[in-house]
Amino acid sequence: MPALSKRTDTLVKWAAIAIGFFVPISVALDNVLLLAVLILWLAGGRFAEKYRIIRENPVAIAAFALFCMLTAGMFWGRTPLSDALGTLGKYIDLLFVPIFVTLFEDRAARRNALRAFLASMLLTLLLSYLIRFGFLHTNSIIRGFAANPYVFKLHITQNFFMSFAVLMLASLALKAEGVGERALWILLAALATFNIFLMVQGRIGYLVSAVLLLYLFARKFGKQGMALGGGAVLLLGCIAYFGSHEFHERIDLAIHEAVLWHPGQATKDSDSIGQRLEYDVNTLGIVSKHPFFGVGTGGFPRAYADQVAGTGMIPVHHPHNEFLLITSQLGVAGLLLLLLLFYLQWREAGMLGLERRFLGEGLVLAMISGCLFNSFLLDHAEGLFFAWMSGVLFSGRRSD
After folding, report:
1. Which residues contact 352 (CB under 8 A, 6 or more apart)?
2. Other C-beta atoms lying within 10 Å of the C-beta of residue 177
3. Could you tell me the residue ranges of all domains in the chain?
4. Which pTM was predicted?
């Protein structure tokens, strides 16, 4: 039995590590690996030890508490139980945070997990360049095209992941001992940054990259870092704006759409920024009517349809803002719990070694930035990435 338990433990760790490689690539393989992790984790036993690890990990407890609140939210509001269960299922990744923190207790597992994700993003980066220069074309696997060379995921998701990959490359460059190794990581980070700003048309990547760049300068250079980082972001933005037709066009379009938007007026289907502003205002209207408990888990689509009835505005399934989505479903208590999760991650990151501190704090900043304009915990790839990376970075609490 001990030998069987050891083999099961090895298998479940490698299945969890493999998720990091496939989360930027395949939904189907993600789901297969998640199921394998769950089955093997349960088969491995040692529940007293696992319970102790989870109980002592504030991030795991907060993620579990948020999932429990979403579960409780199924039983208030007017949402049919089947619809509520469907929405809850999209948040299932939160339930895996406690599992992941038990699997990445040792440094070797965490190191291999981070390598797996970075390897996947470097593969994505290589293929993106090949698409851009005409060596690869759209097929059953490759989704992008030369003018917008995203690979496995849509441009929004790829640029978000690539922004975090740049942070990982920067942290490797900072701790590199040799000049050649440092130069390699800097070169790859530069190529990935170029890919984000001048090749792939994902505006959330622009924002997250700018936030993470400001953070890096502030963390590296202290008080002067924000000014230096702001200058770097401004310079990078100018280079991208005047050097890339796609970037120039996307920024001009965003400004144009924001200027054209007027509260209470329906926006065009093609007006991305105007639609998001419309979603925000209408969702705040829902929150104002249900401030304490919200409309319940899965209740947003019906509540939003009621909110916009007779206005000519189109009903939507989520507001492209995770903070507003959680608040509309669970009320202020749900929002506070989500904010508590991010706060605990930031606090725990400050107690980690330098590399994991960079990545832990960067994860919080990336998710907060992304969740302002997308429902990232609801989305499969981003939600799983958050849960998996939370397990990797905040397990083995105070050890490097």
Report:
1. 360, 393, 397, 398, 400
2. 6
3. 2-393
4. 0.91
